[in-house]
Write a structure and sequence with these properties.
Layout (H helix, E strand, L loop, with lengths): L1 H23 L32 H33 L6 H8 L4 H8 L3 E3 L15 E6 H5 L2 E6 L4 E5 H6 L1 E2 L3
Parallel strand pairs: 2-5
Antiparallel strand pairs: 1-2, 2-3, 3-4
Amino acid sequence: IAPTLLVAALVLPGCRKGNQAASTAPAAPVAQAPAPQNPRPAQPAGGGTTVAQGGGGGVMAVRKAAQRPMSANDLKQVSLFYRQYEDEQGRPPANAQEFLGYIRRDAGKLAKEIEDGNVIIFYGARLGSLPAGAAQTVLAYEKSVEEAGDGFVVMADGSAQRVNAQQFAALAKAGR
């Protein structure tokens, strides 16, 4: 029995040292594949477009959201130009031709939006004498309000807000 105990006494401490050494030794480095020489963006399954190419619903939603403040600001500019025209001329613009002639030099992009029919303006309305008040009366709006039932309007007081078709129908319109 003594020789067996002697062997066990010699082997067990060696095993413990071996385990401790293995747990404290640094891990061997893992081999990595070399980087490709000419990396390309991954193509989606089915041959669709990548984000970099301008596709994808998420990208379109972000672009549309980024354009919304621009639309609201454009409509606010319409209100400012309309008010300025009325102050300088002593009367509101009677029609698109008068108004476009007035703003074209300073706001060419906005004039183009109006010409293209993307912005609808109620002409001939005196801003100081609106029955529902300037804050409650639509002066101009995006065509998308009528077409898609959602878009921006600018009130006669210059504030812009996003409305749906029901809200738009309930608002007073300048000149009507």
